[in-house]
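So, can you check what follows?
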Amino acid sequence: EPALVAALEDADGDVALAAAESLGKLPRLAKPAKVTDLLRAAAPSARRAAARACARMRPPPDGAVLTQALLAEKIGTVQGELAVALGRVKHAGAVAPLLALLQEGAPDARRKAAWALGQIGDKSACGPLVEALFLSVPDAKDRAEYEDLLIELADTDPSTQTVDVNIKALQYLAEMRTQKETAFDAYVHGLFLHDAARAETFM
């Protein structure tokens, strides 16, 4: 374990990431704080490797520590790794910084923030996810992942969202209906279960 932790700071970024993967395969780390301390390392490659290790290691790291690291981080690749780690520990306190990353981060970091928000399951994320579909998602891969998240949110109860959020979600999914009819139908079905009167306007 000490050698792998030391390798997280290797000048070769690929070596550092490989060490992170290996740490994740250990049944339990004796000194997990040695890994989380590296979230404050000077080198971005070391912070990225530490964040990846945090997403995989056992016991899982404190979500508050990961959230503080995300708030302080400016490098997109590191932000993305931290988002994945936060999604895996399902830390509710990370919703606000993940929403900020969803709106302002680099494309890959935004995609990982969206995934993390879906894992955490906070319904306040639905509105920003819908906005991201319309305003800040640049490619088809991102759009497909956001559609899947909308299906999951539909199952949780879209009637808890504002009318504007539901309309935007359904407008978007209606436009994509020829490619992914199940997304539209699942959202309407989820809405119908909880708010039949509103859902009937989209049937």
